[in-house]
Amino acid sequence: QVQLVESGGGSVQAGGSLRLSCAVSGHVYNADCLAWFRQAPGKEREGVAAIYTGASNTFYRDFVKGRFTISQGNAKNTLYLQMNSLKPEDTAAYYCALGPRAVVAGGIWGCGFAYEYHYWGQGTQVTVSS
Prior knowledge:
Elements: E1 3-7, E2 10-13, E3 18-25, E4 32-39, E5 46-52, E6 57-60, E7 68-72, E8 78-83, E9 92-100, E10 102-104, E11 108-110, E12 119-120, E13 124-129
């Protein structure tokens, strides 16, 4: 059984930074995807960033490219999301998730956001004020 516990959310002004953490316990195969999703009130959940544990490839949605960075700790049991240049539209509950790999552009193994992830954390709130 895999457990995911997020932390690090909070309130920040536009242009500020936050780092989210996700403690990962249980067995994570070396061919899984660890990802961050978010959900704002009244909106559907959307993928933000993912990392393929098999090769440490990273994947980002266009709206966070250049501002957010996903990474794993040295012991691979912590997932991070460094968020810089935050905007009010980044306000949401952020969730850590574990899911399967997928074939991505170029025909290589990687991660996507349009399919089911099997394990989820409880979420951490990020609020960005203007």
